[in-house]
Amino acid sequence: MSDKQRITVTVNDQEHDLLVEPRTLALDLLRDELRLTGTHAGCEQGVCGACTILVDGKITRACLMFAVQLDGCSVETVESLGSPDGTMHPIQRAFSENHGLQCGFCTPGMLMVTQELLRREPRPDAETARAAIAGNHCRCTGYQHIVASVCAAGRAMSEAEHQHVDRQDVEHQGARA
Ligand code: FES
Ligand code: FES
Predict the structure, then answer these.
(1) CB 80 within 8 A of CB 12
(2) For residues 75 and 7, what is the distance between their CA atoms, to the nearest angstrom?
């Protein structure tokens, strides 16, 4: 008899009803079963951060979690950024424009850490950005460009948000005039 367990998990806003082995890692579920291969397998022992995802909004190492622990959770992977038409998310654009990646292996983890940081700290300074990415290893960049990318993403998203609010104010005033 199979010892598989049924779980329901929402991944990137899509609900999945799955049967999983108790020993299956969240990382393997995402990569092998859901084919979300943007979440990278690096050290597979919780050190490098390449497998970083958000579980209920919190930074999580997918290699340190069993898939069954995701039951009832909402997961965001790097595939949640960007759009099907190829439009980049502002975080992705900031990394691209500020040379925040070279080989790209660490990048999905860096992007998800940045996503989480900018939700609680919309305009981080370099020190805050450096602290946020401290658990994510990069073998290529020397980190300077990644820190610049995180700060640039914060600026771009904050400015876009202000422009959106200003536009809403103008429309609101126009509607009342
Ligand atoms: S693969 Fe998970 S921390 Fe390195
Ligand atoms: S860009 Fe190569 S590991 Fe970070």
Answers:
(1) yes
(2) 13
Q: Looking at the 3D structure of the chain, how many domains does it have?
A: 2
**Lookup: tokens for 27:** 């990382």
Cβ of 146 below 6 Å from ligand 2: no
Task: Check if 108 has its Cβ closer than 6 Å to any atom of ligand 1.
Answer: no
Answer yes or no: is the C-beta of 42 below 6 A from any ligand 1 atom.
yes
Q: Is the pTM of this model over 0.85?
A: yes
Do 50 and 87 belong together in one domain? no
> Token pair 């598989």 is at which residue?
4
* Domain coverage including residue 146: 81-177
Instruction: Please say if the pLDDT value at position 161 is more than 90.
Output: no
Cβ atoms within 10 Å of 55's Cβ, excluding its own: 18
Mark whether 14 and 31 lie in a shared domain. yes
